[in-house]
Amino acid sequence: MQNDIDISSFISDFSTNCSKAQIKTFDKGETITTFLVNRNQFCILISGSADLVRYDYNGNRLVSERFSKNAIFGEIFYQINTNSEFVVEAKDKCEVLLFSYDDINEKCKSNCSFHQKLIAFFPDLVISKITDLTSRIELLSRRTTRDKLLGYFNLLSKQYGKHFTLPFSITELANYLAVDRSSMTRELSILKKENFIKQDRNKITLLY
Amino acid sequence: MQNDIDISSFISDFSTNCSKAQIKTFDKGETITTFLVNRNQFCILISGSADLVRYDYNGNRLVSERFSKNAIFGEIFYQINTNSEFVVEAKDKCEVLLFSYDDINEKCKSNCSFHQKLIAFFPDLVISKITDLTSRIELLSRRTTRDKLLGYFNLLSKQYGKHFTLPFSITELANYLAVDRSSMTRELSILKKENFIKQDRNKITLLY
DNA sequence: TTTTATCTGTTGCAATTGCAACAGTCTTTT
DNA sequence: AAAAGACTGTTGCAATTGCAACAGATAAAA
User: Do A133 and B138 touch (CB under 8 A)?
Assistant: First the structure.
């Protein structure tokens, strides 16, 4: 939601100026990082898009978050959790800035130009992240699938108007809203029947 | 969850050094802030505890978040939303640091000692906040009340062991997990019957 | 202490949801 | 172009949940 920062403009700085941070490029499908041990890893997505994927006990692949430009993620934000395996996978070609938060925080505090710039854009990134998470909590707190759908559509319509394309497939939307896919589709059908929305796959038009 | 920072130690700094920030004290029950217009307000709870309260269309008071020492909150983190009215209320006596994020970010960037210190502790506060929100999303994504309860108890047991007191009343816990209170109580009873837990009001013992 | 208000636990019932299985589309790969 | 795989939509059924109403317990106020 916060796309007005352009981190890529100073990419050249770290490779030359900070030994603690690195930029890596990932091709579609590659694993960017995992959340297994806690190395306090901190990642910033500079370009491309990626999914936070959970593999449940049945081996099903569930996309539980979608990252795009300027998204931040990494072990540092997660309480490493017993029975769930998280992986971040490149959805298309990605440039990612990776560093250990500890390194950045402790070892090159003031004399590193990368660190200086990190401080400059860090607040906007995290505030935007918190806003996103808070919105999602508001959605997930709703009791019915219908309320979740309409709530989510409302958020999108503020940005894009009455007609928009979901940033998710239908299957992924169900994961994002934490409901069963087929039940969600059922509810979408009802919304269509009742003329609340038009829908063609992940293209939605609000009729109210 | 992140209590090792002590903001109060430099409280004296802002009142004297930064005209943009202020410390206020609130008595139990008082409204600390509301989320109505977006003034980019940013709040840090220095001492005491507070609730993020939503009043739904029936006038019911729902506690949807609980803030304690070092919690951050404020309009800046919320997409102001049509049909929900949010208020932060002091749960007991509170000291709160308030400022407009814009003011801090734009107008006294480098020559204000308050700003310098804010930068120093800001990262830990926001990272801790993101971790909390992410954990909650993981809980809210679970399909059954039982899974939500056990997941939450697991988190607490990592910190406090097999026996702990919830930071919530039973009613508030239901709000936090976004389930119906009576249904949740029903599920708690089943967990007791099946000898998974012992429970006396908000005191829980895990038996596994 | 008495009164009042709030919180907790219980249960019946209706509504919603998850699960499973399947068929049709669309996309990607060979 | 054909085949394989993934995604979407549908539906029956069982399980879970929300809702409502109520009684007892606890806490706060008078």
Answer: no
Interface test with B, best of A38, A76, A77 (most B CBs within 10 A): A77
- Tokens representing A145 are 């699938």
The strand pairing partners of A205, in sequence order, are A163, A198
Verify if strand C has an atom below 7 Å from the CB of B149.
no
Q: Is the pLDDT of residue B104 over 50?
A: yes
Work out the average pLDDT over A51-62. Answer: 73
pLDDT in tens, B113-124: 777 777 778 888
- Strand D contact with B166 (CB < 7 A): no
Q: Report domain B142-206's class.
A: mainly alpha
CATH of B7-122, one of 2.60.120.10, 3.20.20.70, 1.20.120.680, 3.40.630.30: 2.60.120.10
Measure in Å the smallest separation between the Cα of B76 and chain A Cα atoms.
Answer: 8
Burial of B134 by CB count in 10 Å (0-12 exposed, 13-18 middle, 19+ buried)?
buried
The mean per-residue pLDDT over the stretch B54-78 comes to 81
Q: Shortest CA distance to B129 belongs to which of B68, B178, B176? A: B68
The answer to whether B200 CB is within 7 Å of strand C is yes
pTM above 0.85, yes or no: yes
